[in-house]
C-alpha cells in the first residue's frame, strides 16, 4: 500500500495543465514536420509553416499554443494498492485544474447550466475525469486540454454487423469530410469500434492519447489504421481544409468486443494542436 | 510556400476587387474582435433599430476569444474560432456594411451568397496558431460589452496579420476549389460513389 497525498495530485495536475497548453508533444511536432516536408500544395505548406512557427513561439514566449485551452480531460490510472489521503481524488484533480488555469493565464471555457444560463465557472472546472483501477501502486495522471473546434465534430453511429470494415471506413471518411476545416486539420482521427455507446466514444477518445507514430498492437487493426489514413488523406481537404495531401497525421483505432446485433463506431477528432501531458506518482 | 499580398486596412474597393480565393495576405490596420455572445447582442440591437457599439461599415471582424494577457503583454493567445457558429448572424452584419471577416473553417451557402451580394471577403487565419497571431496584434482596447470577458468587443491594431482568402467577392470558395484539386477519388473505394 502506497499513500499519495491529495495536495500532490493537485500540484501535478496544475503543472500538467500549464505544460500541456504551451509545449506540444515531440511526436506531434515530428509528424507536423513530416507533413510540411511532404505537402504538395504551396498554400497548405504555408499553413504548416505557420503551425510549426506557432509551436516554437508558444514554447519560447510562454504563450498558449491555442486560445482555446479546452475542456480539461483527465485520465487517471489508479493502482489498486494506492491509498489517497488528505482529500477526495476528484476534488484534488479539480483543484489542480483551477490552479493551473488561473495561475497559468489560460482561458476558462466551461459554462454551467449548459442549456440555459451558461454561466462561466471561472476556473475551467469541472474537468472531465476518466478513472481506471489498474494493478500496482502507482497513480498515472494524463491531462488533455481538448479544444471545442475538434470535439464538436465527434460522431457516433451503430452500424449493422454485416456492414463491417467498409461501413466503418465510409463512416470515418464522411465524418472527416463533413467536419471540413472546423477541427483544425491536420487532425488525429480517434476511432472507437465495439462496446456500448458510451464505451465506444471513450475508446475513440483513448485512441487519440496514443503517440502519433505508434500503431495499434494488433496487426489487423494496425493495417486498418494505415488503410484509413491513406483514404482520409485522399479526401484532399488538407491542412485547415485549404486543399492538400495532409488531412490527418494519424488514424488510431481502439476496439472492444461488440454485442452480436451491433457494430458501434465512434469518431473523436483531435486538432493538430494535440495537447497531452502525463505524470506518474 | 505561397507569396503574400500586403493589405492596409480598411479594405478599399480596389482590394476587394483584386483579392481571390487562395490568396495569402498580411493585414495591417484595425480589426474588431467579436464572437458568439457579442454577435447575439449586436443582432438584438439591430433588430431594435439601435446603433451598434462599433460602426461596422467598411470594417473587419475577427472571431476570437483570447486567453488572459500575462502582465506586461498586449494580449494572450489569440487565434480564430470556428466561423460556422456565426453563420446565422453574418448576413445581417454584411447588410450593415461589414467588409471583411476573419475566422476558421468554411461558411454556409447563405453567408457565401451574402458575401457576394454585399461585396465582402471572408478570410481564414490558421486555427491553432494563437501564439503566432498574438505577436501580430500590437494594441488592444475593449470598446464594448466588457462584461463578456474573453468575448468582449476589442479594437485591435494589427501588423502583418497572416490570413488566407476563402471567399472573394466574385463567388469563389477556396475550400471547394482546394478539395476538388487534391481529391483522389480512385483511392476512396466505395466512399467515392456514396459521396
Give the gist of this structure.
Chain A has 281 residues and is α/β, with parallel strands linked by helices.
3D architecture notes:
The complex is a heterodimer of chains A (281) and B (195). Chain A has 281 residues and is of the alpha/beta class. Chain A has two domains: 2-20 and 65-146, no CATH class; 149-274, no CATH class. Chain A is built from eight helices and twelve strands. In chain A, the strands form four sheets. A four-stranded mixed β-sheet of chain A has the order 6-2-7-12. A four-stranded mixed β-sheet of chain A has the order 8-11-9-10. In chain A, a hairpin with a 6-residue loop joins strand 4 (111-112) and strand 5. In chain A, helix 1 crosses helix 4 and helix 2 (26-38) packs antiparallel against helix 3. The radius of gyration of chain A is 19 Å and the shape is globular. The mean pLDDT of chain A is 97. With 195 residues, chain B is of the alpha/beta class. Chain B has one domain (9-183): Alpha-Beta Barrel (fumarase). Chain B has seven helices and seven strands, in the order E-H-E-H-E-H-E-H-E-H-E-E-H-H. Chain B has helices spanning 13-18, 36-47, 90-95, 109-117, 130-134, 174-182, 191-194, and strands at 4-8, 24-33, 60-62, 100-103, 121-124, 137-144, 153-167. A five-stranded mixed beta barrel of chain B has the order 2-3-4-5-7. In chain B, helix 4 links the parallel strand 4 (100-103) and strand 5 (121-124). The chains are: A alpha/beta (281), B alpha/beta (195). Chains A and B meet through helix 3, helix 6 and helix 8 of A and helix 5 and helix 6 of B.
